[in-house]
Amino acid sequence: MIDLHTHTTCSDGTDSPLMLVKKAAAAGITVLGLADHDSTSGWEEATNALHSDLQLVLGSEVSCLTEDGVAVHMLGMLFDGKDDEIQRLLADSRDTRIPRMRKMIENLRAAGYDITIEDVAQSTPEGATLGRPHLADALVKKKIVKSRDEAFADLLNNDSPFYVTHLSPTPEDAIRAIRKAGGVSVIAHPFASRRGQIIDESTFQSLVAAGLNGIEVYHRDHSEDERNQLMAVARSLDLVVTGSSDYHGTGKLNQLGENTTDRQEWERLESMANERRVVQRWMK
């Protein structure tokens, strides 16, 4: 099984990179993609955790914003982690998350919700990329909501009055940075309408011109109609089709391997990187 989109405590997952690798191996995953939000800090621990023929695809999920203000997540995989430009792009995105979080908390408090930045800090693992899931965890801990899913459905989704965007690269800029660093780019869950505003089909032309390699078609948050629409877009633009769990540990209902990528599609995607960067440690 090939699962190219998972998260750890280095962003908003609940499993450490070590635990993620162990769980993936136990679940029968053969190719695992690590894509923490705007961060590569989990790469070393995940690499050191390899103990079987599991193949590790290192990457990051880059937070982007289109020119007309639509949030887009771009999966960058197989890029050179030492590339200065992409590390600056990731760092800049992380740096804007703290003032954004303060403003969201301010909005919630103005509406009568008893939540503070200190509450969120206590729910954020050390070194993690700060994000809405940590605010959701704080809301759960204070019994304001019952779960992360409820927090996002009622308070933290993109259409909520409490939502605040943050400065981000355009998806085109993110794609160009990923490709310049030798990697490949796949747009994550682009038609997941229940998350909020989504891009239009016409946007894909600009993304392809920037160097987009693939579309994450098979995802829990895509309806059957949305999957069919994305498959048609992928075929018309000759883009790789992927499927992934978007696993976050106990932070979401998503389970490892619940959506996967066909091996032929994966091999095609991997061949588009400028060199082979899949990490593997064979058992002796």
TrEMBL record:
InterPro entries: PHP_dom (IPR004013), PHP_domain (IPR052018), Pol/His_phosphatase_N (IPR003141), Pol/histidinol_Pase-like (IPR016195)
Source organism: freshwater metagenome
One Gene Ontology molecular-function label: 5'-3' DNA exonuclease activity
Entries under SMART domains matching the protein: POLIIIAc (SM00481)
CDD domains: PHP_HisPPase_AMP
Domain Polymerase/histidinol phosphatase N-terminal: 2-66
Name assigned to this protein: Unannotated protein
